[in-house]
Amino acid sequence: MSACPHVSSASLSPPRPSQSVYREDCTLCFDSIDSPEGLDVCLHCFNGGCATERQHGAKHAQEANHPLALNIKRTRKQKHRDEPPQKMSKLAINAETEEDRFDTVSSVKCFECANDDIEKSQGNLQVVVDGVLKANTFAKQEEVKAWEQEMIPCEHTLCLEQETSRHIESQSLGHCSQCDLNENLWLCLTCGNLGCGRSQFGGVGGNSHGVAHTDSTKHPVAVKLGSLTADGSADIYCYACNEERTDPELVAHLAHWGIDIAGRQKTEKSLTEMQLEQNLRWEFSMTNEDGKELKPMCGPGLTGLKNLGNSCYLASVVQSLFAMPEFAQRYYRPDEKLPKTSDPAEDIEIQLRKMADGLLSGRYANPNPDVIASEDTTEQPHQKGIAPAMLKHLIGRGHSEFSTMRQQDAFEFLLHLLKLISRSQRAAKDYYKDVSDPVDAFRFVMEQKLQCLNCNKVRYRQDEAENISVAVPIKRLQKDTKMEGVTPGPDGSVEKETEEFESVTLQRCLDEFTAAEVVELNCGACGGKNFTKQSLFKTFPSILAVNARRFEIVNWVPTKQDVPVIVDEGTIDFEAYRSKGQQPGEELLPDDSADAGAGSTAFVPNEAALSMLEAMGFPRVRCEKALHATGNTDAETASLWLFEHMEDPDIDEPVDLSGGGAGASASNAVDPEKIEMLGNMGFGAPQARQALKETSGDVERAVEWLFNHPDATGDFGEEQEAGDQASAQQPESKAVAEDNKPANFKLQSIVCHKGGSIHAG
Predict the structure, then answer these.
(1) Long-range contacts of 461-465 (CB under 8 A, 24+ apart)
(2) Is residue 359 within 8 Å of 322, Cβ to Cβ?
(3) Parallel, antiparallel, or unpaired for β 565-566 and 504-505?
(4) Half-sphere exposure (CA, 13 Å, Cβ side) for 548?
(5) What backbone phi and psi angles, to 5 degrees, belong to 316?
(6) In 362-409, which residue ranges form alpha helices assigned H by DSSP?
(7) β 458-465/444-452 pair status
(8) In whole angstroms, what is the distance from residue 179 CA to residue 196 CA?
(9) Environment class of residue 381 by beta-carbon count within 10 Å: exposed (0-12), middle (13-18) or buried (19+)?
């Protein structure tokens, strides 16, 4: 060890609690402290840079003039995980220390002196090093360290009524009342029935006869016999609450059925222990819903993403995006040098490139050599995967939902991510060559046709879009109709009496989405009240994002239904959904009849639908807004719109129903100060004026609109009034160019949330 003159630098001080310390992986790539060369953590700004052949740590030191770094290497301790030694009273995953899991070595290096082993006792170097090693890492600051679910009694366990007592066989002599299984047995505390439980991850057998018993008898509480211990603890499940519970009188309730808990010995893992084991072994225990081991895959384009805590929605969307050539070509540029930046972890362009490198290079898709197969599994070591903590932080920053660790809707996340990517392109053009917005691949134009049923005059309107949201027709199967794949038990019953639904093809969803519907509007030409409305594709995108809405209102409650949506794996022809534009012989509605498209007379909500929506508990302003947005048709369509827009910041702002619509707002003067504010952001006055009119003067929404409409022509106000009057007679003159390319699509990816939550899809 030798001395270094840079140790006396005034910039050396321990990290503050609020400072991010990047000591897990490199901020420019996914090389980490687990790499053989380790990770170089800058002792001046605490940036993490790899010490591998990429030398991102050394490059940072040179560019930032930060010579000192702490090199950290860690290796996983070779040990087997045994069953938890004692029963836990609550479901909790406590964060292990690094000392429990890893052997870690560190050394201080100076890049300027070319010294790789500096004495830590010099100056305050030891204090800084200790501060770095003890500080929460960036990832730990952004994720939930532990989660826990307290087990409490409920009214069904507290007020349990038991039938006539009898002695039942248990342990080795007991078996399910409907099959021969003698493990994973659940005792109904009400009647003493023994039924096998559900099959569990890891190969634990079960035919769900205990669940079937509960469904048929409505007996709410059951206890897992194999989890009983002499201290009175056990797995207790209340099916009425659909939660794990505790039973203060468990000893007495078991004695009622001839079971002396004092002599019991736990023979099976509890639900808590299996959950904990699954989390602890998640890196190398990958199973499907049937409990079968998944085949490990490795190589370029086959890199997995670690779950950061309910982040499967992020992983699914990101994997789908970077599988698209438009995104891969935009962000995976291994031969292009990244520009200098003071904080790469806060640069979305760099983090997207880091993600592209991680997913597509194959550098991190190698079998994990540290994985230890346990005696009860035959699985093969698979890759560790990469943790998208920095990207998740940037995407979720400032967002009320995506900044949390709660489960989220994948489609909402996709739209949010695409918006951020589009926003970042303007800044990227100043630093990178050949920059193009990959979100352009999602953009297309829908053309809406309105036709008066009285005078047959028509009006066309074109809207730019990045996705379509289609309703899935919901039709229940007859009780005696069985879906393919459902196997009845020995007695002819199925696992659970659940509703089954008729499968629906994507084509059928599209047919209904593009079908003409009758709406109630006022015709300025003839005074008629009824119109047909139909939306078709004017242009087609390279990538079409389709949101399938499997929602239904059941007892005034929105419910996600398990409707199978069948998508053809071959080429799907969308030619039938192409708009042909104005046809010969069609007469356009005069411009002053804009109520057919935007409403020039007062909008009158459908009273019947409005009453139903208010009866469901929605405020009147939301009801009117929903009916206005969905064509004033029915309560169900409007309620679905409401559930999709519950989080809109302007959901409770009254909508202009006076009849002015877009046309009226266009005639009103826009606040010059708001135009100036947008001008200071780099937007031209015409574009700013148009954006403000489209968003009712909301500056924040106007910014989003401008990023989503980069090719907007703008509103030139009075200087273009004469031209607008002329073009008003021929609105089709501004129509987009005809799209003659083949409208053929092929399925690339599906993101589907299996849970019942309407907030995660």
Answers:
(1) 461/597, 462/538, 462/735, 462/736, 464/708, 464/709
(2) yes
(3) parallel
(4) 23
(5) -65, -45
(6) 389-396
(7) antiparallel
(8) 8
(9) middle
How far, in Å, CA of 459 to CA of 179, rounded?
Answer: 67
Q: What is the largest CA-CA distance in the chain?
A: 95
Measure the CA–CA gap between 699 and 127, rounded to whole angstroms: 48
Question: What domains appear along the chain, each with residue ranges and CATH number?
Answer: 5-145 (3.30.40.10), 155-276 (3.30.40.10), 281-441 (3.90.70.10), 669-734 (1.10.8.10)
Sign of CA dihedral 650, 653, 656, 657: positive
Question: Around Cβ 408, how many Cβ atoms within 10 Å?
Answer: 25
Query: Which residue shows structure tokens 């994720």?
Result: 143
In contact, 57 and 51? CB cutoff 8 Å: yes
Q: What is the pLDDT of residues 263-289, one digit of tens each?
A: 676 677 666 556 544 544 444 445 665
Does residue 453 contact residue 518 with C-beta atoms inside 8 Å? yes
Read off the tokens for 20.
């991010």
Token pair listed for 571:
């080429």
Q: What are phi and psi of 277, to 5 degrees?
A: -65, -40
Which of 659, 661, 679 lies closest to 671 in space, CA to CA? 679
- Give the residue carrying structure tokens 């008729």: 502
- Which H or E element spans position 573? strand 571-573
Residue predicted with more confidence, 86 or 740: 740
- Name the strand (E) or helix (H) holding 317: helix 312-322
Q: Would you say how long the chain is, in residues?
A: 761
What does the pLDDT look like over 622-680, one tens digit per residue?
Answer: 888 888 777 677 787 788 888 777 777 777 777 666 544 333 333 446 777 777 667 65
* pLDDT value at residue 309: 73
**pLDDT above 70 coverage of the chain, percent:** 74
Q: Are strands 68-76 and 102-110 parallel, antiparallel or unpaired?
A: antiparallel
Cα angle 697, 701, 705 (rounded to 5 degrees) comes to 105
- pLDDT tens-digit profile of 489-517? 444 444 445 678 899 999 999 999 999 98
Beta bridge partners of 222: 188, 237
Residue at 143: amino acid letter: E
Q: State the DSSP string of 62-111.
A: HHHT--EEEEEEEEE--------SS--SEEE-PPPPHHHHEEEEEEEEET
As a whole number of angstroms, the distance between CA 416 and CA 577 comes to 27
